[in-house]
Amino acid sequence: MGRSSSYTSSLAALLEAKRLVVLVGEGGVGKTSTAAALAYGQALAGRDVAVLTVDPAPRLGDALGISKLDGAPCRVALPATPNTAGSLVAMRLDAKHTFDRMVERYAPTRDAAEALLRHPVYQAVSGSLGGSEHYMAFQHLAELAESAEHDLLVIDTPPAVTVSELLAAPARLAGLFDAGALSILAEPARLLARATNALARASLSLVLAVVGRVAGDSLKADVGEFVRLFSDILAGLEDNTRTINNLLRSRQTAFVMITRPRDGDVARAIALRKELAGVGLRIDAIVVNRLTPPGMPPLPSRAERLADALPQVNSAIRLMEREMDSLRRTEAKALARLRAAMVGADAPVVIPLASLDVDVATLEDIATLARGLFGGAQ
Amino acid sequence: MRTGPARILFVSGKGGTGKSFVAEALGREAASRGTEVVLVRVRASASAGGDGEPNSESAVSPPRRDARASNRTSAESLVAFKEVHLDEKAALEEFLTRVLPLGFVARRLLGGRMLSALAAAAPGLRDLVTLTAITALATDHRGHTHDLLVVDAPATTHGVPLLTAPTRVLEITPTGPLTREAETARELITDPRRFIPLIVTTPEELAVTEAISLHDDMRDAGVPAARVVVNGLWPARLAPEHAKWLLATRVSSDAIVHHKRRQRQLELIDTLERRVGRCPTLPFMFDDRPVAAGVIAALLDTVLGAA
Fold first, then answer.
1. Of the four listed, A189, A250, A275, B81, which is most buried by Cβ atoms within 10 Å?
2. How many contiguous H segments (helices) and E segments (strands) does chain A have?
3. Which of A26, A29, A55, A172 to mutate to test the interface with B (most CBs of B within 10 A)?
4. Cβ distance of B237 and A319 shorter than 8 Å
5. Region B192-217: what's the mean pLDDT?
6. What's the confidence (pLDDT) of residue A222?
7. What is the tens place of the pLDDT at every residue in A176-202?
8. Helix H segments across chain B?
9. Do A41 and A100 belong to one domain?
């Protein structure tokens, strides 16, 4: 594998035995760019890596070659160095296609799969089911894990309101198509007859009208048919959910949380870790993203130059420096608070990551972030 | 003190933009002026069905007070400020229990799975119920109407499901009891005197892109034009000609970083304003001190003055 000896940080050591990395954290903390950097660094270290992202910022998507929505994988060019034996493929989650592939896989026959895929009810729900994006992210991950084409898979999860929502996604989708629930939708007339007041009937009519609208005129026949077709893949879906759950809890999977060095973010990160621990998932590393880097040492000629400057320029520059210092102190305090909360045998590695001070827009930026992650950590 | 129906300040934005902070700060500022305020924090449900567990919590609950929050209450006990949490799933359960008085069916519904199926099959239904539950909070149990509801809407990355719900429901069922609820809700959210949408964003690339699409989605939903507030603008410290001198002499790397950060933010705000009009800003805070009260007061004036 020709692993470079310069990549021996605590994060690199941690990832050595892993085949999957799941990144979690709130929206806007830099999850996608960190996922890209983590994947990039591991590819440089000689592994064959795939990174699956959900919703990259436009220019980050461009940098990875995945700004188009088609979900096609893109090979990311790595710098040619003597010991680069690794590779990097970037992919963008396409929930609809992933769902389609799942149907093709679990349908008993090719015809059954075709019928379901063409079904108007399926077409209406497969892209917009509650939680389907989360489920499909894990589903895609499971497919990649199975293919064994890559040494390491890195997945950037969709922003979830809560972790339990994220983790409930597989169970939720299976639950949605649970035979009991579907049988009610399949026999709307029976349920309607039981609804005794006008509002109850209106609510149910609304539900059925939605189904009716997407299904065309022959509501009952269509929904019934959809239910029958979908029932055939239910067993497969349940198997699949188990596989995904096992995968997420496997020793080969690492959870990496991304947060920012501010008090509120750190408090939420600590709460998130606790919440995950509650469902038996352990955070292996916490990346504290966008730390303000230390200022450069002043040039020897600086004092004279500043002395020459207009007094208001001089004082403005001093104020800007004080503000940057104040920001670094605020961040250091938040980082210290996080470290203080991460004690004990299963405490995650805390990795401070300096801000690039630009939006991550090029492969070079990603490479710089990767050096920050693996180069000088702890 | 005003009379008449409550106004609704609807604060939305993606996660991590400071949306909740802005909603609360504006609500407290309005309350300090003698306005009766209810801050409604809408929570997407943690486990929207599938677990088979009925949710025993009611849809509307007072917030759990942490130590820091309770420090504030004594000083502000004279101010008419109330905070409530609204759970979307619980609101839907309450609604369905109310309208479906069938033991068997209700139990199935509360079992969670059917609830998911219903919500997935008729997404407009859940959102309409949430919207109706929000507006119901404008009036307390004695029939007294508050002045201002500040809604801390669920973080959203794509679209505004709550605000499109009435139209979606009306398209499907043009007549019937739900129609009335949908029409009332639509009337409210399209009335510029009563409904004030606010989008919070940070001056960062992805956040700005999403704020623009959220703004356009709201316009398409027929609600009054949303104002976008930019949270976290770095301060201007140097005149342009002095900035040039700084960049040429490089006397301070910190000052250069500081200056460049603001310039990048101004570029993004420019892009944003070309699409959505003038955007008020809140300053970036270098430490954990709160934003100055005067700044929040000015923002509240801008936001409510537009109504």
1. B81
2. 16, 8
3. A172
4. yes
5. 92
6. 61
7. 555 455 555 555 555 555 555 566 666
8. 19-32, 67-75, 88-99, 103-110, 113-121, 123-136, 161-172, 177-189, 205-220, 240-249, 253-276, 293-305
9. no
Q: Which residues pair with B151 in a beta bridge?
A: B10, B40
Q: Which of B178, B257, B264 sits opposite A203 (nearest CB)?
A: B178
Residue that the structure tokens 């979830």 belong to: A160
Least CB-CB distance to B251: which of A184, A292, A317?
A317
Query: The domain spanning residue A72 has which CATH number?
Result: 3.40.50.300
Look at chain A and report how many structural domains it folds into: 2
Pick the last residue of a domain from A236, A251, A266: A251
| For residues B110-138, average pLDDT | 70
> How many angstroms separate the CA atoms of A375 and A368, rounded?
10
Same-domain status, A353 and A276: yes
Q: Is the pLDDT of residue B68 over 50?
A: no
Partner-chain contact A168 B113, CB within 8 Å: no
Question: Are A184 and A272 part of one and the same domain?
Answer: no
Tokens of residue B260, six digits? 């460049």
Contact A173, A236 (CB under 8 A): no
Contact flag A165-B173 (C-beta cutoff 8 Å): no
**Same domain for A210 and A192:** yes
> Which of A260, A317, A321, A327 should one mutate to test binding to chain B, selecting the residue with the greatest count of B CBs within 10 A?
A317
Q: Find the CB nearest A185 among B43, B105, B121.
A: B121
Provide the residue range defining the domain that includes A61.
1-53+55-92+253-378
For B84-120, write each residue's pLDDT tens digit: 888 877 787 777 666 654 445 544 544 455 555 555 5
Are A274 and A335 in the same domain?
A: yes
pLDDT on residue B66: 43
Identify whether residues A100 and A114 lie together within a single domain. Answer: yes
A269 pLDDT more than 50: yes
Question: CB B47 to CB A197 under 8 A?
Answer: no
Share of chain B above pLDDT 70, in %: 75
* A118 and A87 inside one domain: no
Chain A residues near residue B117 by CB distance under 8 angstroms: 176, 181-182, 184-185
Q: Does residue A213 carry a pLDDT above 90?
A: no
Same domain, A125 and A201: yes
ipTM comes to 0.83
Whether the CB-CB separation of A346 and A352 falls below 8 Å is answered with no
Is A176:A129 a contact under the CB 8 Å cutoff?
yes
- Domain assignment of residue A157, yes or no: no
